[in-house]
Each structure stands twice: as C-alpha cells, then as structure tokens.
Amino acid sequence: MNTESDGANPHARSWRRMFMPLAENVSEARRGARLVLDSWAVPDDAAETIALIVSELAANAIRHAYVPDRCFEVALSRDGEKVVEVEVSDASPHHPVVKSFDPDATSGRGLLLVEALSDVWEVRSREFGKTLWVRVLS
After folding, report:
1. Rounded to an integer, what distance in angstroms lies between the CA atom of residue 50 and that of residue 34?
2. What are the tens digits of pLDDT across the range 52-63?
3. Burial category of 97 from C-beta neighbours within 10 Å (exposed 0-12, middle 13-18, buried 19 and up)
C-alpha cells in the first residue's frame, strides 16, 4: 500500500494505482481503496461509501470506456480532515451521462448512486480521456 503525504499538510494523504480493464479489477480497486481508507482511519461508514463509489466508477471505466491496451487509474486523496477525493481516469474521451433507468433493469444506476452518495462530482477532460472526480465528506 503506497501512500504519500503532502509536504504542505503533513496530515494529507494520497494513493494512486493503475488497473488493467478486466472485470476482476473492480473488486481489486475496491479492496485497495478500502485498505488505504482503513490505514487513514476514515470512519467505517464513509470508507464503505467511498469503496462503493470506487467500485461503480471502476465498473463504468471497464464497461463503457474501454480502450484497447489502455489501463484505468484510481486515485484517492485526503486533506487530513474530513474530505476524501476519488478520481477514476480512463482513456475514453466520451463523457458519461446520468440517465433515467427502467426499474426492472439490472444495470444503469451507477452514476445515480455516485450522485446520491457524494458531496459533489464532475467529469474532467484530460489530454487523453477523462477523469470522474468525486468529493466525499468523511
């Protein structure tokens, strides 16, 4: 578990990891995030919420933003107080859209969940692809 401290704020922490776009890496991303959040002493309820957000965004990166031979990246940062930021980046330039869903559908609720569980979220364009950025108060 490779976490770093911010020199300006000794209580700030960050973690970043690349994943191949394989379905089994959704659980790896969630597990890695949970281990890091536990090591940062993030309260259990907030840590579980953040881990769920990581899972949803990682699954979306694999299902909807797959680009051959390109990984997706998960990053977490904590300000040392009560804010945790989540970033999931992929190589697809296509921005996700929150859609209404059929109540009988087995998928399609990921971004609605992220929206409901986060303080704020947005899509940020990058030179190659995009980043879904989420802030959660812990």
Report:
1. 8
2. 999 999 999 999
3. exposed
* b/e 2-38 (16+ beta carbons within 10 angstroms → b): eeeeeeeeeebbbbebebebeeebbeebbebbbebbe
One-letter amino acid for residue 28 of the chain: E
Whether the pTM exceeds 0.70: the reply is yes
CB 30 within 8 A of CB 76: no
Rg (CA), the chain: 15
Beta bridge partners of 124: 131
DSSP-derived secondary structure letter, 68: T
CA distance 138 to 126: 27
Q: Which 8-state DSSP code applies to residue 96?
A: P
> What pLDDT is stored for residue 126 in this prediction?
93
Structure token digits, residue 63: 């299902």
In angstroms, the CA 92 to CA 94 distance is: 5
What's the rounded Cα separation, in Å, for the pair 136 and 50?
7
